[in-house]
Design brief:
Helix content: 25-40%
Radius of gyration: 11 Å
Number of helices: 2
Strand content: 35-45%
Structural class: alpha+beta
Shape: globular
Number of strands: 5
Number of domains: 1
């Protein structure tokens, strides 16, 4: 899975032309989640609250790039 960002032990990855809805994947230790790019909600998996907060902050800043 192509990694597009890494910070504080959090890995963000995305596949080009992956299945709908548009989403990205997050890995943090043993946690895994997929988040929708459109509404920034978890569509699969789970993350600790602090990690989710950091991921949402990152995603909000990079939302336009993610949609491309």
């Amino acid at each position: 899975m192509p990694e597009i960002s890494r910070f504080f032990g959090i890995v963000i990855a995305i596949f080009y032309n992956d299945h709908a809805p548009p989403h990205f994947h997050v890995k943090y230790n043993s946690y895994r989640a997929s988040l929708s790019i459109v509404d920034l909600k978890i569509i699969d998996g789970n993350l600790p609250k602090r990690v989710l907060s950091l991921v949402l902050e990152w995603a909000f800043e990079h939302r336009v790039e993610l949609m491309r």
